[in-house]
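About this split. The held-out portion is used to measure sequence recovery: a designer receives only the structure tokens and must propose an amino acid at every position. Recovery is the fraction of positions where the proposal matches the reference. Here is one held-out target exactly as it appears in the evaluation file.
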């Protein structure tokens, strides 16, 4: 039976209240009339519409002014901005000098600055758009606002922030803009049902709301417009909503919203701020126990009692989100995260929080209808998540399913790769190409594994980040200088190799991308286990050679020397991996990149290589988060290649080919909190995607026809694994479509 889902993401959306669902169904069956019709069915619908509007007026504290139904807050924001900017345009057309600025809070939902930019451009106003700075607590700098409000035609501030829950000082803002003549929009989305906005008592001109943040369905919202505020409809047509918003009303949505507002007015299940704060504090206690060192990103005293935004120093948001999701707890990243990229939250950055806090942020949010029992279960699961993470850091095998500690663990941040090498027969370990974002996570991992860090090596002087080796040494609690003297890349001076039990690391100079570039060969006896090549050659790209520290002429000899030393089929582990291909070989890159083929062709003229490479690099753009491009990508690695198999197709495959290998690529901490039963048939392995590079050679050594099906929770990491193995030449390799979640496992 499916586990209960613990939904703690109410600031994103909420489930629909059962009585709101009933009301929507009734509006689609019994009261289905068009409120503009004058017959009985229409009149019944009109009565309902009027009743809900009256209720909304009471809840919003808006007995005067206009209250109109919209599709949601985004539409309300557009309408408000359009209205204010049209008024400015008319004033300018009448010969008046209008205020030159438009202002919005620096932590505003992006719908607001986007609408300001959009309508400013569409209406040809050419006004300056500025963000009102906030302090470290996320509150607007009122002195700044007071100074600049006279220059503003419109000021937009939210009532409460969706990421942090920080409640704005609306009284202070009102005083700061008093007398300025600016129109004032307050985004009330996160305040609905949680704060008394008393709209009509304030100088607020516009206030948009969204139903789905408070147990109504998506697609219904409200816009309050003060009586004397200028108004321009976004939609015109049949004159509905007193000409404020044309189009037949979303009556099912209106009915549902009405039912929610009624429940709110009656206090039916809605908890007050004090009760919510007690529940929030229980969650916080569980979080602090589970994740020591947790830091709140906004002071609770300034926040809605329904939102917790926190960061854990040595745990990235992505790890926490995967862990929580595996435990059936749904939360959000405070930043836009994906498997390999974590863009720091704009809201937290605007508050001046350090980059690690802005990128590690996680948000838990509850709605006012939350139950005590849900919080109790959430706390229980949060504690088990903490336990799972501690076990995972202490050992790669908390679930008892993996066979041995993985030789190499890989992290990836914004396309840059970092590796931890942990051979099984020693307590020694080495980090290759450390990344500053990972310092505490890797140090924690090393400590948990009870390993001794013996070297932190950079393959070259990086163009996009400074080496974080010194920070890693100190975070790993090794006294600085307790190892041998090293060169600037961390290699112990005078040593030809670094011993790691029965493995050893050997260094090979590979100048080109930079003059100091090296490859690091991990050997087991005489056998090559892996070759860390930095940015010399990457999946789909060659390292750029147009830096001042580059040695373009050295690259051809380097590639030839590498081919001679490791061969064309050896697995190369790159310094950057923009497409999550994990590893490559010279043979594959020769096929994918004409330049590699040219370089490795002994008959080719190195001068033509130099010309073509310089031409390719002439317009190298920055990468997604404006980091330096490390090389021109010529092969996008067929990201769209179909590798998915449905659950039924996997079952058939396993029946037809009983040797089919099923590989669970979830991290061990996810497996340990997710009791989901895996496929009973076929052989199953667990290789977390972070350790994929350790297993690639194993899988490549299997017979060619061997079928391999990767699976994970959502299907994204397993598709990544399948594509990586396919690019290395395997065909019978698949990913379970939609992951365990969609497969209903
Ligand atoms: N404003 C805030 C503060 C929000 O949290 C949201 C939604 O997340 C919006 C505006 C946009 O609302 P909707 O997407 O419902 O139009």
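Reference sequence for scoring:
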């Amino acid at each position: 039976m499916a586990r209960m889902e613990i939904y703690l993401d109410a600031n994103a959306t909420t489930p629909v209240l059962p009585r709101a669902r009933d009301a929507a169904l009734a509006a689609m069956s019994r009261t289905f009339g068009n409120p503009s019709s004058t017959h009985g069915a229409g009149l019944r619908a009109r009565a309902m519409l009027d009743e809900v509007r009256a209720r909304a007026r009471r809840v919003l504290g808006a007995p005067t002014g206009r209250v109109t139904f919209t599709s949601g807050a985004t539409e309300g924001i557009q309408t408000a901005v359009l209205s204010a900017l049209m008024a400015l345009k008319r004033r300018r057309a009448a010969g008046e000098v209008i205020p030159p600025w438009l202002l919005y809070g620096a932590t505003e939902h992006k719908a607001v600055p986007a609408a300001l930019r959009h309508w400013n451009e569409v209406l040809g106003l050419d006004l300056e758009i500025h963000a009102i700075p906030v302090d470290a607590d996320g509150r607007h700098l009122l002195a700044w606002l007071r100074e600049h409000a006279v220059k503003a035609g419109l000021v937009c501030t939210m009532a409460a922030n969706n990421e942090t829950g920080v409640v704005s000082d609306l009284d202070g803002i009102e005083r700061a803009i008093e007398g300025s003549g600016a129109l004032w929009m307050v985004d009330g989305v996160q305040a609905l049902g949680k704060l008394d906005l008393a709209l009509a008592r304030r100088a607020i001109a516009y206030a948009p709301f969204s139903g789905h943040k408070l147990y109504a369905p998506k697609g219904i919202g409200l816009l309050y417009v003060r009586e004397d505020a200028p108004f321009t409809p976004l939609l015109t047509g049949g004159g509905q909503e007193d000409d404020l918003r044309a189009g037949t009303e979303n009556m099912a949505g209106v009915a549902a919203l009405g039912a929610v507002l009624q429940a709110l007015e009656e206090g039916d299940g809605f908890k007050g701020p004090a009760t919510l704060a007690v529940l929030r504090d229980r969650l916080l206690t569980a979080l602090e126990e589970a994740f020591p060192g947790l830091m709140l990103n906004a002071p609770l005293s300034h926040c809605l009692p329904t939102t917790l935004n926190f960061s854990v120093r040595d745990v990235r948001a992505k790890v926490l989100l995967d862990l929580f999701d595996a435990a059936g707890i749904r939360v959000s990243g405070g930043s836009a995260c994906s498997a390999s990229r974590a863009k720091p939250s704009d809201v937290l950055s605007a508050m001046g929080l350090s980059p690690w806090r802005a990128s590690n942020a996680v948000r838990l949010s509850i709605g006012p209808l939350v139950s005590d029992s849900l919080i109790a279960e959430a706390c229980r699961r949060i504690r088990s998540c903490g336990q799972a993470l501690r076990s995972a850091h202490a050992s790669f095998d908390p679930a008892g399913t993996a066979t041995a500690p993985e030789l190499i663990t890989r992290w990836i941040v914004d396309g840059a790769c970092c590796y931890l090498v942990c051979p099984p027969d020693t307590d020694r370990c080495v980090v290759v190409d450390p990344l500053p974002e990972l310092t505490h996570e890797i140090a924690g991992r090393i400590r948990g594994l009870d390993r001794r860090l013996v070297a932190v090596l950079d393959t070259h002087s990086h163009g996009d980040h400074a080496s974080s080796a010194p920070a890693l040494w100190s975070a790993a609690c090794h006294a600085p200088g307790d190892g041998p003297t090293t060169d600037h890349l961390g290699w112990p001076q005078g040593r030809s190799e670094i011993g790691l039990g029965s493995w050893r690391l050997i260094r090979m100079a590979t100048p080109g991308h930079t003059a100091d570039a090296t490859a690091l060969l991990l050997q087991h006896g005489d056998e090559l286990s892996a070759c860390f090549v930095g940015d010399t050659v990457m999946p789909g790209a060659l390292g750029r050679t147009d830096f001042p520290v580059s040695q373009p002429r050295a690259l051809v000899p380097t590639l030839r020397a590498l081919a001679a030393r490791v061969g064309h089929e050896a697995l190369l582990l790159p310094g950057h991996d923009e497409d999550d291909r994990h590893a490559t070989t010279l043979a594959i890159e020769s096929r994918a990149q004409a330049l590699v083929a040219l370089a490795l062709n002994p008959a080719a003229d190195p001068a033509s290589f130099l010309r073509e490479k310089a031409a390719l690099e002439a317009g190298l753009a920055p990468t997604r988060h404006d980091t330096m491009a490390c090389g021109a990508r010529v092969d996008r690695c067929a990201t769209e290649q179909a590798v998915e198999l449905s659950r039924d197709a996997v079952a058939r495959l396993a029946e037809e080919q009983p040797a089919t290998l099923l590989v669970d690529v979830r991290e061990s901490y996810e497996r340990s909190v997710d009791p989901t039963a895996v496929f009973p048939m076929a052989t199953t392995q667990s290789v977390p995607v972070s350790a994929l590079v350790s297993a690639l050679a194993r899988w490549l050594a299997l017979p060619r026809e061997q079928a391999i099906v990767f699976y994970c929770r959502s299907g994204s990491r397993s598709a990544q694994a399948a594509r990586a193995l396919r690019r290395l030449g395997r065909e019978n390799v698949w990913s379970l479509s939609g992951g365990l979640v969609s497969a209903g496992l």
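Annotator remark: The longest strand covers residues 527-534.
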